[in-house]
Amino acid sequence: KLFGGFRKTSDRLGENLTGLLGGGKAALDAATLDEIEEALIASDLGPATAGRIRARLDGELFEKGLDERTLREIVAQEIEKVLAPVAKPLEIEAFPRPQVILVIGVNGSGKTTTIAKLAHMLQEQDYAVMLVAGDTFRAAAIGQLTVWADRIGVPIISGKEGGDAAGLVFEGVKQGTEKGIDVLIVDTAGRLQNKTGLMDELAKIRRVLGRLNPAAPHDVLLVLDATTGQNALSQIEIFKETAGVTGLIMTKLDGTARGGVLVAAAERYGMPVHAIGLGESIDDLKPFDPAEVARAIAG
Ligand code: GDP
Q: What are the TM regions of this chain, as residue ranges (predicted)?
């Protein structure tokens, strides 16, 4: 399933590399090394990783020439080295309860779906989960999250469109505490076009949470759409400090040739990646296994 998920990404990497080795085994002259490096960058893997793969190829003696299989093997190994340090499953602490997870991301990134998938994943680990429909700017987001909550059988706190998100969060923590909820997952607005408003609102949510519990929010997850490629990187740039992001979830890795951006993000920001989205259904949020993902990308 995972390998199928990254197929478009590995196909494109293959297309970019094909021909560079002359169809068979090629000796690695500087021009070929340049071409390989460019092909890796064109596959969204990021300049640092591409440079390291080049250096490694340069450093190894391929006297008999390099075939595509060996090249892919080296690419997989180097990708795994980049991904391994950031692969961290979401950890739910025992105290205090409820643990609060804020989920942020621009509209269309897959935020709503990811919240539902995450709730489902935690439910399967026997956590009592509750949702807060804090994206109060979009009636559709409230509606969609409610549909998911009903479908998977988790309680949800929601209000009217245009309502006060921080107030909902307050209510969520209060009810969560009363009901013995383990994890409260809070949706937030994703209007990047009104950045100041968005950041003010997040700050307000944080203030309310901080008053209830100085350790909250325990996680601030940024949901990124892999199909946007390099744009996903600029979103990390925008949100990482202003929103205090603690970890990433990258979605839509199944439908894109730009999955290499996961490697570029890991390389550049070193932020924990908690899970990856590989489809539209509730079971399509997968734990992030760096070895498996590296193989899937390298093909
Ligand atoms: P939001 O606006 O950020 O809340 O985004 P949604 O959760 O509504 O998702 C936008 C679209 O992306 C929906 O059609 C989802 O089904 C789809 N989607 C979300 N995650 C994934 C994923 O991992 N893979 C695929 N193929 N589609 C996804």
A: none
